Amino acid sequence: MPAPKTLPRIERALAKADPALGRLIKVIIERSGPRHVAPSPTPPFEALVRAVVYQSVSAKAAASIYARLKAEVGKPFSPGKIGAMSEASIAAAGLAKSKARAIANLAAWFLANRKRAKALPTLPDDEVVAALTSIPGVGPWTVNVFLIFNLGREDVMPASDLGIRRGVQLIARMRSIATPNQVKERALLWRPYRSVASLYLWTSIRLKLQQADLG
Fold first, then answer.
1. What is the pLDDT of residues 140-182, one digit of tens each?
2. Angle between the N-to-C axes of helices 19-32 and 9-17, in degrees from 0 to 180, rounded to the nearest 10
C-alpha cells in the first residue's frame, strides 16, 4: 500500500483506522478511481421511488423496471401523478405488489406532509430515518440509500445490505458472509465516513475482487 499521503483525505483517514479497508481502497482507486459521496440533483421523491425499485433485484432488471415506470408516469415524475395511479398501474411496470404499494404510500406521504418532505435535505440523519421509515413499506435500507446517494450524507451504514456484508467478509478474510452485527462492529472504525467506506465495499463486489487482489 502506498504511503497514506498518496490517498485522498477521507480515504487516508479510513486507511489509517482500518488498514485492511485501506488495501481495498488502494486497489479500487488504481483500477477505477476514487469514490465520492455528494448530494444529487434528483428530487427526493424520485430518488426514494428509485431506491424502492432497486431493492433486492439486479441492477439491470431494476433499471428496466424503473425506465418503464418513468415512461408510464411521464413528466414531471411527481407525488401527485403517482398518487393518481392505482397500485395495479404502478405494478404494471414490473414491480411486485409490495413495492407498488410502498411507492403509492410514498406518494401519499409526500402529498400529506409537504412541509416535512421539503425539509428532508436539511434534517439530521436520524430525523430523516424516523420520518421515512414511518411510511409503510419503506425500510432502513431504502432510507440509507437515499441518505447516501441523494442527500450525500457521509456517515451512513447500511449494515444489512448484502454487498456490504460481502465486502466486510472480503476485507476481514472471513469464511462466511458477515452478519449485520459484524458489519456494524467493524464500521465503528470508519466513523465519520461510513458512507464512503460503503461505496468502496460495494465497488469491490462490482469489480469481483478476491482476497488475492488485496495482497
1. 999 999 999 999 999 999 999 999 999 999 999 999 999 999 9
2. 140
Confidence (pTM) = 0.91
Q: How many domains does the chain have?
A: 2
Placement of cell 397500485 in the chain: 87
Q: Per this entry, what is the length of the chain? A: 215
User: Residue 56: what pLDDT?
Assistant: 85
pLDDT digits (tens, 9 = 90+) for 35-70: 999 999 999 999 999 999 999 888 899 999 999 999
The 3-class secondary structure across 141-174, one letter per residue, is HHHHHHHHHCCCCCCCCCCCCHHHHHHHHHHHCC
**How confident is residue 1, by pLDDT bands cut at 50, 70 and 90?**
very low
102, amino acid identity: A
Residue type, 20: A
Look up the domain containing 200 and give its range: 4-37+157-214
The CATH number for 16's domain is 1.10.1670.40
Residue where one domain finishes, among candidates 123, 149, 175: 149
Query: Contact at 8 Å (CB) between 176 and 203?
Result: no
Report the distance separating Cα 131 and Cα 66, nearest Å. 24
All 3 cell numbers of residue 143? Answer: 432510507
Cell for 12? 487516508
Q: Counting beta carbons within 10 angstroms of the beta carbon of residue 151, is it exposed (0 to 12), middle (13 to 18) or buried (19 or more)?
A: buried
